[in-house]
Amino acid sequence: MVFVTRENQTAWPIPESLQEIEHYMKQRVGLGVSFDFGVRKLKILRKDVHFYWITGLCDTQFIIETVEELVRINDHEKLSADLFKIVENRLVNQSVSPIKTLDEMVTQVLSGLIVVVVEGADTAFAVDVRSYPGRSPQEPDTEKVVRGSRDGFVENIVINTALTRRRIRDERLRFEILKVGERSRTDIAIGYINDIADPDLVNILRKELKSIKIDGIPMADKTIEEFILKQGFNPYPLVRYTERADVAAAHLLEGHVVIYVDTSPSVIIAPTTYFHHVQHAEEFREAPIMGTFMRWSRFLGIITSIILLPLWLLFVLEPSLLPDKLSFIGPNEQTNIPIVVQILLADFGLEFLKIAAIHTPTPLSTAMGLIAAVLIGQIAIEVGLFVSEVILYVAIAGIGSFTTPSYELSVANKMGRMTLVILVAIFHTPGFVIGSTLLFIHLVTTRALNTPYFWPFLPFEPKGFLQIIFRRAVPGSILRPSIVHPRNRYRQPPKGE
């Protein structure tokens, strides 16, 4: 079986006969079969002029105005005039580009543009009148803030780049567009600031995207991530996703590269470290001291979500490790079900609730929560399935998971927590020590696009470490993070200049 790509297809030039073009469209695109493939045939100065478009991807009003403008040619032009030049001048649109091949013509039509072909000409015109169906910008559900902008990315790549342009009005901001997918031909834009971003990183991402050979990417940015990173079985996210335009703009100004994928309301930020995933826009909308407090609270929640359950299980299995003053920690009741089994059941129960909440219609989600909390939880304790301490600590660990801004990181941390629980249940203290050490070594040795995942902790960089621990005021943030290798390190003039 041979995988046919557009590179190994013959680039047929546009024929001067419109009947040949129409036959090609019938054979290649399904003209006359697909109801949404439109064609409009005009007779202007005794020559044929055809329009091709996809219904639903174009603004109908622009098509009508263009047709009206061309129909008026009969009343004002002479028969001896060059119809091709007349049509070119009458296409009243801000974006009109010539097309030389049939393959490019098909691609432009399927991308939502209208294509105008003139009898006797070997060049067609692509007119950008795209009007993709979609929603208007609104605040993302997963990145809400108390104060701040309420406009988030949507499924339209043009709107998403425009939201970024609105925040960075710099002539050095670049959006390189390319198409991925032999059948889907999905638009992908690489966003970066030319004099800040590392050109080697931009070249690597550009090369990786151009090397993707697949029929389509209906899962959009996630598919792109898997091709770029080849992550394998590593659960920890190596790139950051965001649906907030201000977050994307802030990372662009730091020197990161942002990948926009059409049909996706989130963008990919690269490169990123572990600590990029634990920052939230709310920290930068408050005073530095308040932002630092929120950051420390979030760090505490993340650490709790990983360590609390394995550590408590260790104290249950080996009570001698507890000081006398903390001897009250542990189950005060005995059940026939081992504690480790109770912890895993309760932890998986929380996962069931989270999945059910995603699939449950909003009006029913409140009722589902009441059933889970009041009926299932209380009855499970009364019948002896769980002891109350298990429910308490599993709930605290679950709340700690929800404090993680990155959904992908919270799931990875939960997998690490369950692994530690199993190791502690089998090996007790050695299991906890060895498991925690292996988890730490895994994070330290992980690299995302040649970037140390645990920077600035390891390799240690004092200035970067302080910026992670403390939310510094913007006037004090003079340098950009060195981890992205920015071409221009200064965010603002150094003191004294």
Helix content: 40-55%
**Which radius of gyration do the C-alpha atoms yield?**
29 Å
* Low-pLDDT sequence parts: none
Distance between the termini: 66 Å
Which descriptors apply to this entry?
single chain, alpha+beta, 16 helices, 12 strands, 44% helix
At a glance:
The protein has helices at 18-28, 60-71, 73-76, 83-90, 102-110, 157-167, 199-210, 221-229, 245-254, 288-317, 339-359, 362-382, 388-402, 407-427, 429-445, 462-469, and strands spanning 37-44, 47-54, 96-99, 114-118, 124-127, 173-180, 186-193, 240-242, 257-261, 267-270, 447-448, 451-452. With 497 residues, it is an alpha+beta fold.
List the helices and strands and how they pair.
Layout: H1 18-28, E1 37-44, E2 47-54, H2 60-71, H3 73-76, H4 83-90, E3 96-99, H5 102-110, E4 114-118, E5 124-127, H6 157-167, E6 173-180, E7 186-193, H7 199-210, H8 221-229, E8 240-242, H9 245-254, E9 257-261, E10 267-270, H10 288-317, H11 339-359, H12 362-382, H13 388-402, H14 407-427, H15 429-445, E11 447-448, E12 451-452, H16 462-469
Antiparallel strand pairs: 1-2, 2-4, 3-5, 4-5, 6-7, 7-9, 8-10, 9-10, 11-12
